């Protein structure tokens, strides 16, 4: 395998947490719910996914339970901001701290303090017959774990849902003009709550992917800012699933490039290398935000009785 092919394969592998977390952010945002708890939900997903896989066997079970736990947090965010019209940003930050704390607590209660943390099997690569033998593209796209394929399928399904179905039209109308959607019979509250839940489930799934792909165990701080970058990616992609999928390649590429430079033996402080993805993100966002189309009702609560926004 050539150096370029190896690099591109790592980029595709690194795209998955960005894709899932940013698509979850986008899904909730298109319904008007601005979730800022990505980093905490990914930590919680990583902890729950690892512990369930370790104690009950099987990565699939861990992924499912992690998604369910994340979905509950998202449901709570959607419900409390819709029912009581509390500030979405404040509740999201509270959930970030809560999820981060629960993630750490669960690990310490189940595993305790140990010098040799237990390991779980990492996800195996699944080679797609015929396609995996294509030069360059084969190893890069068709010799990956099932979660890589799932991330791409989720992106395609979200695009189809939003732009090819009547349900997607209703969902987008809730995030753009809930008053008009309400007048047409769309249940605005239910749409916001369940989109928030589904989006948070994807964020937790993104976190669960990390120990099952990179380390085989859970460590505090392993999300390493990917949750915050997922918010930037949602804006970078204009809150559209197809552009988020493409943008994730840039974010993942910068992450892999920073790691390659760090292990390449260059006489550069590792702190400088670690901040490269964030600097590149900041520079790109300065231009991308000028062209990004943000849902009109993003982060605002809708009061059906008074027909006003908060």
UniProtKB/TrEMBL annotation:
Keywords: Cell membrane, Membrane, Transmembrane, Transmembrane helix. The chain crosses the membrane at residues 6-28, 63-82, 89-110, 146-163, 193-212, 218-236, 243-263, 275-292. PANTHER family: ABC TRANSPORTER PERMEASE PROTEIN, SUGAR ABC TRANSPORTER INTEGRAL MEMBRANE PROTEIN-RELATED. This is ABC transporter permease. It is found in: Cell membrane. It comes from Terrabacter ginsenosidimutans. Pfam families: BPD_transp_2. InterPro entries: ABC_transp_permease (IPR001851). The keyword Lyase does not apply. It comes from the Bacteria. It is a multi-pass membrane protein. Its main location: membrane.
